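BUG: 3D viewer hangs when loading the predicted structure for this chain

Environment: internal workstation, default settings.
Expected: structure renders.
Actual: progress bar stalls at 90%.

Input used:
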Amino acid sequence: MKRRAVIIGIVLSLALAGAAAAAGPVKPSNRDKCPVCGMFVAKYPDFLARIVFRDGSCAFFDGAKDMFKYYQNMKKYAPLKTMEDIVSIYVTDYYTLEPIDALKAHYVVGSDVTGPMGRELIPFEKEDDAAEFMKDHGGKRRLGFDEVSPELIRSLD
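Structure tokens produced before the viewer hung:
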């Protein structure tokens, strides 16, 4: 009986995770605040980032920089959550203004474009768009998700 309950629990968890992922990116309400800086995120749709969790909850950010701060230090910002609780992470593509998978995005740093919190990582779905943006806006580096270090994030503040 105990084993059956565990199996049912696992199946329900996977179903909820699948439903949250299938639903795609959730939009913030006018009351949602960035858990890192406290800004109301709906005011900045062009820079919006979000982390979606298994339980259906979502953390919204006013830019990729604050999303990385949160992600890289979840013990500080979300002590009851773990990396395993994350279903998906989205950032907003700078050119299309559409939500894209943050894990697959190309990030440009060091450009003349700033976000709501100043210097920012500028995300792109397509590598060619990131390269074009670098030429047009003096970007210094193009990085993948795993290349964005806490040191880099601190240097942007």
